[in-house]
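hey so i finally got around to running the thing on that chain from the lab meeting. sorry it took forever, my laptop kept dying and i had to restart like 3 times. anyway pasting the input first so we r on the same page abt which one it is
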Amino acid sequence: MSVNFRTAEAKPAFTFEKLRVILNLSTKKQRLGETDMDVVDYYEFLQISPTAEPDTIRRVYRFLAGRLHPDNPETGDAVKFHMLKQAYDVLSDPDKRAEYDATLKKDAPQPPPLSSTIDFMGSLDGELNRRLALLALLYIQRRTDPYSPEVSLNEVEKRMGFPRDYLQFTTWYLRNKGYITQADNSDFTLTALGVDFVEENNANIPVLNRLLTTGTGPAVAPAPPEPEEARKILTPPPTPIIVPPSPAGVAPGGNGASDGSAANKDEKV
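ok and heres what got predicted. didnt touch it at all, straight out
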C-alpha cells in the first residue's frame, strides 16, 4: 500500500519589514537592553483613537476580519489579517493594552504647541486665531473619536501653548455662538453647529485649513497671516443705521415748509 505525502507549502514569513511596507504603518522605536525593536501602531492600523472603548475595538475588528480574511475572494489579505489578529489580541486585553500604550507613548515626540507657528498675541487677529485653533482641535478630536469628543482644558492649554487665562474670552464667545459646549469639569466639545462652521469655512480661511490639514498646525513657518477673511466670518458686521425718509414736501432739516413755498416767499420779498 503506497501512501502519498503532500509536500507542505512554505508559509510566508511575516517579517515586520514586509508588514510595514504593505500596511504603510508608522512605528516607534523601543529599546530593550541592547536591541532596538519596532513597535507597530495598532491604533493607526485599525483607524481608531488610542482612547477607543472596548466595544469600538470589537466592532472594528469584526468588520475588518470579514474583509481581510483569506477566504474572502475579493478583499482577503493574509498578511493584513495576521496583523489584525495581533492587534486585537493586544488591544482587547486590558493588561496587554496598558503595557502596549506605555510602550507606544514612551519617548514619543510631542508636537510643538500651536503658539510656535501661529500668532495668538495680537489684539484682534490673535483672538481670531485662538478661536480657529480651538475649533480645529475640537473638530479633529470629534472626527477621530466620535464616542469621546471631549478635550480637557489642560489639553487645550498644552496643545495651544497658551495660558488658559487668555482663553476666557475665546471660550465665552464660542460658547455663546453655540459652536462649543463646556462641561462642569471644563471639558470642551464641538457642537453640530461648530462642525458646520468648520466644514463650510475650511476653504475660505487659510489658517483653519492648515490647522485641519496638519492636525497640529503648520510644521514650517506659516505664510503671512490672512486674517481679513476670518475677521469677516467670525466677527458679525455692525448693524446699519436706517434713517427714515422725510415726509413728502418737507425739506430735510427745514421748518415744514415746502421748497416751492419758500421760493414763492422769496419772490414776494
